[in-house]
């Protein structure tokens, strides 16, 4: 089935659909990871986006239930150079194409993804329409130009859970990272953690439980009073999609929670903390998405290769350096990758220490959260 991708700049790519039939629209972005396509397409942070994979061959090892990062795919569309339908892997349960069809995700193969990626790097993220139903170039370009910008969109409310739930699962796959001495951390003590779900990835939850945490996952709109009434040992702020400035209800809630309990934030959670502390965020030209981004830990001088997926960043010049310390810096463009409070039990990072996909250089941050809760208790 013929499919077309039209961009707001007037460029149209024609290829073949290997997912569900239909038409989807959103911000076109690219991910430089060599593997992990299932984790990427199921990451809630991709809500509202059409993902382009820069790795040219996708689909060769199929998909399975264990590698999903949420209960369903959240990307609006998927774009690859070449889709390989004859998957071969001892863990595979179905093909990527069948998985995308099952969940209604439109997918495109057979286009020049290198050209598309270079265009996005040069011009910045572009609005686009991916369609198998409307194949008129002019019509598709007009639709792309009529789309709203990602800036100003609160997408966390569309991917968050609707009711609180408890999570106890750890990673039991053949490639799971070990637990701390295969026992809960801190001499057998468990920590009750409230997880704000702005689009949380399952491997974040698995890593927290592996470090001895009992988790209650709550909707993004949960009030500070409700969380404090649970009397948690710590509060975790998850990743998520969209513009952090638009998630005003969460910013207001965090202002009430800061200083009350130890807090650890990742990605969108990091940005929301910055805003709650009086800082500002801004939209990156084309974002950071992939499993190979170098980040310098300013405390140790070590370089961590990190997994990233975000389109916004914290403006450090807007932050109060009398209270906050910059802890991590992106070596590609010097953007903020982490900070901590000088007095309060609070720290956060822009990247993804839980990986999935990506390296595990930064898994120590979960232990740091455990230590922070232990010291506060």
CATH top level of the largest domain? Answer: Alpha Beta
Biggest sheet: strands side by side, in what order? 10-12-11-13-14-19-18-17-15-16
Based on CA atoms alone, the radius of gyration comes out at 20 Å
- Stated plainly, the CATH topology of the largest domain is called Rossmann fold
Terminus-to-terminus distance: 59 Å
Query: Which series of helices and strands comes N to C?
Result: EEEHEEEEHEHEHHEEHEHEHEHEEEEEH
Work out the number of β strands: 19
Pairing-aware structural class of the strands and helices?
alpha/beta
CATH architecture of the largest domain: 3-Layer(aba) Sandwich
What this model shows, in words?
- Helix content is 22%, strand content 31%.
- With 377 residues, the chain is of the alpha/beta class.
- The chain has 2 domains: 2-145, Carbamoyl-phosphate synthase small subunit, N-terminal domain (Glucose Oxidase, domain 1, 3-Layer(bba) Sandwich), CATH 3.50.30.20; 156-376, Rossmann fold (3-Layer(aba) Sandwich), CATH 3.40.50.
- The protein has a 10-stranded mixed β-sheet with strand order 10-12-11-13-14-19-18-17-15-16, sandwiched between helices. The chain has a 7-stranded mixed barrel with strand order 1-2-8-6-4-3-9.
- α8 links the parallel β13 (234-237) and β14.
- It starts with a strand and ends with a helix.
């Amino acid at each position: 089935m013929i499919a077309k991708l039209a961009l707001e700049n007037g460029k149209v790519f024609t290829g073949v659909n290997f997912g569900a039939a239909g038409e989807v629209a959103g911000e076109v972005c690219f991910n430089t990871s060599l593997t992990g396509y299932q984790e990427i397409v199921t990451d809630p942070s991709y809500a509202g986006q059409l993902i382009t994979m820069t790795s040219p061959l996708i689909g060769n090892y199929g998909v399975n239930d264990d590698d999903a990062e949420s209960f369903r795919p959240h990307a609006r569309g998927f774009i690859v150079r070449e889709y390989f339908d004859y998957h071969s892997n001892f863990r595979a349960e179905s093909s990527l194409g069948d998985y995308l069809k099952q969940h209604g995700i439109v997918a495109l193969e057979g286009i020049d993804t290198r050209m598309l990626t270079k265009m996005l790097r040069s011009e910045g993220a572009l609005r686009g329409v991916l369609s198998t139903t409307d194949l008129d170039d002019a019509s598709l370009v007009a639709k792309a130009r009529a789309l709203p910008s990602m800036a100003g969109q609160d997408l966390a409310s569309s991917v968050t859970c609707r009711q609180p739930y408890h999570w106890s699962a750890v990673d039991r796959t053949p490639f799971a990272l070990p637990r701390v001495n295969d026992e809960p951390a801190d001499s057998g003590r468990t920590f009750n953690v409230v997880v704000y779900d702005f689009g949380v990835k399952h491997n974040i939850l698995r890593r927290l439980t592996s470090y001895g945490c009992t988790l209650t996952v709550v909707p993004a709109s949960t009030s500070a009073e409700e969380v404090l009434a649970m009397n948690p040992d710590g509060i975790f702020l998850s990743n998520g999609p969209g513009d952090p400035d638009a998630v005003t209800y969460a910013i207001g809630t965090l202002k009430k929670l800061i200083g009350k309990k130890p807090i650890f934030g990742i990605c969108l959670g990091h940005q929301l903390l910055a805003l709650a502390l009086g800082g500002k965020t801004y939209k990156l030209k084309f974002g950071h998405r992939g499993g190979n981004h170098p980040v310098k830990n300013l405390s140790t001088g070590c370089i961590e290769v990190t997994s990233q997926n975000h389109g916004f960043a914290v403006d450090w010049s807007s932050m109060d350096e009398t209270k906050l310390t910059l802890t991590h810096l992106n070596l590609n463009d010097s953007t903020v990758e982490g900070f901590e409070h000088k007095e309060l039990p609070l720290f956060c990072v822009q990247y993804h220490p839980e990986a999935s996909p990506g390296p595990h250089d930064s898994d120590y941050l979960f232990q740091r959260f455990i230590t922070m809760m232990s010291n506060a208790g």
